[in-house]
Every structure is written in structure tokens, then in C-alpha cells.
Amino acid sequence: MGIQKVAVIGAGTMGRGIVHVCALSGFEVNMQDVSSELLEKSVNILGANLQKGVERGKVTSEAKDAALARISCITDLEEAVKDVDLVIEAVPEIMELKLEIFSKLDRYCLPDAILASNTSTMSITEIASATNRPNKVIGLHFFNPVHMMKLVEIINALETSEETYDVSAAFCKKIGKETVKINEFPGFVTSRINCLIGNEAFVMLQEGVGTPEDIDKALKFGLNHPMGPFELVDLVGLDVRLRNQQYLHETLGEKYKPAPLLVKYVKAGRLGRKVGKGVYDYTDK
User: Fold this and answer.
1) Which pLDDT tens digits describe the chain residue by residue (285 residues)?
2) Is 257 marked as binding a ligand?
């Protein structure tokens, strides 16, 4: 089977980014969220990002308009997924929420539809257990910002079939992504390493080793990282990183225990760019 129509569940940062690349690559896309206000906001942001592509000569005006025309915003989950070939879940990293959604997807979707999760750390095998089609459940881990980042980690669960993997890999290629094939383990490859780096950066900040600016600069110019760990966590969201860190601590042990300073920042509401303040202050920018 091939993918013709896609549904993305969750219209937050990752969800709208996935919708962006799918629609621009010629796929009809249903973007679903329970919040009509978030759907409207996401379409506006998505349109603005496409317009930036036009201004930079990366996208034609015709391609932008055609991509926007391929997107349907729907609040009802059953309506959004009833006739699609692939569903990509992009809701917060809360296992109970994912299990509830996948149980419903299993009931609402066509029998041959592939059910994918964009989770960055959690068990695809456990998510698949909420369905009667574990062979058609897979992980498709995109990176933020989706329209700029080239990689998708494809994660095989215990019972994911080769056909499901092959169709998913072909889909990722059609939307212009490079892929790596991962056999499921908590954190996969990128999140597992990135959480260690980011957490150690918070420990060093807590110890007074350096300022956020100097720690970020050291990794960018000394290790050739495109972003420093604090710039990255502010982009991802400190609350998102903390949930990932807590899950890895639970599944992989003490070396992933969240730094107390990360926990303190989240308790203070310093969640990153999305609220105007994280490690850095963006209120005047």
C-alpha cells in the first residue's frame, strides 16, 4: 500500500510542522485538535512559515497556496481519521493520553491504516498494545522545526511488520526526509544522547561552571553543535524536556535523573520561547 492521505493528531509545534511538510509534499492532510482556537493559530503560523519560504526563494507562491489548500482542520477525531492511510500522533508525552488516543484510532481508522507516534522517548510497543493492529504501529520521530530538520527516526516496535516499515520509510522519503531505522529502546538514539547533554548543561549551570551564554558557545564552537543546549531546550520547551528526562530516568536509571535546576525552572513557569522566558528571556525580542 502507499500513502495518499494523512491525519496529524495534535496541532501544537510538532503537529503543525508535520502538517507543513506533508501538505507541501503533495499529501492531503487532516490536522486534528480538540481546540479550534489552536487549529486556527497553527494554520496562521504554518502559512507565515510558508510565506517565509516564498520570500527566501525556497517555495513558490503557487506551491504555498496549493499546500494550504490541502490542509483540513477538524476537531472531531473520528471524522479526521476515518479515511486516511497514515495517522501521525503528536500530542504531549503522556503515556496514558497516547494509549487512549491509539485505542480510539484502532476503532476509527481503516483496517489497513498505519498508526504512527511522534514520541521522542516512549515505548512504541506499549503504545501499540492499545490496538488490535500492533503490526501496523510504528514510531516516526520528527525534529523541531520540522520543515527545516532533515531527520526522521523510524522506530520499530516488537511486532511492527516489515511492510509497515517499508511504507513508512517511503513516505518519509517523499516528504524529503533522511531516515534511520531504530529498534525500540527508551529514548531511541537522539533523545537519549540529547537528554544527557542537556541535563549535564543544567548541572554545570547549577554548579556555576559558566553562564548559559558561555556553555552554549562552548558547544557550538568547540563541538560544532548548531545550537547550544540551552538554546535548544528553550526551543523544545523545558516542560517537554523534563517529561522526557523523567521517563528516561524511570526506564534507564540514575544517570538520567533530572537536574534540580531544570525542575525549578519548570516549577517557575520558565518553559522556553513559547512563554517568552526559559533559560533565556525573550520578552524584549
Assistant:
1) 689 999 999 999 999 999 999 999 999 999 999 999 999 999 999 999 999 999 999 999 999 999 999 999 999 999 999 999 999 999 998 999 999 999 999 999 999 999 999 999 999 999 999 999 999 999 999 998 899 999 999 999 999 999 999 999 999 999 999 999 999 988 899 999 999 999 999 999 999 999 999 999 999 999 999 999 999 999 989 999 999 999 999 999 999 999 999 999 999 999 999 999 999 999 976
2) no
150 a known binding residue?
A: no
Tell me whether residue 98 is annotated as binding. yes
pTM over 0.90: no
What ranges make up the beta strands (E) of 10-78? 28-32, 71-74
14 labelled binding-site residue = yes
Structural domains of the chain, ranges and CATH numbers in brackets: 5-183 (3.40.50.720), 190-274 (1.10.1040.10)
Is 144 annotated to bind a ligand? Reply is yes
Q: Is 264 annotated as a binding-site member?
A: no
Is 269 annotated as contributing to ligand binding?
Answer: no
The answer to whether the annotation marks 274 as part of a ligand binding site is yes
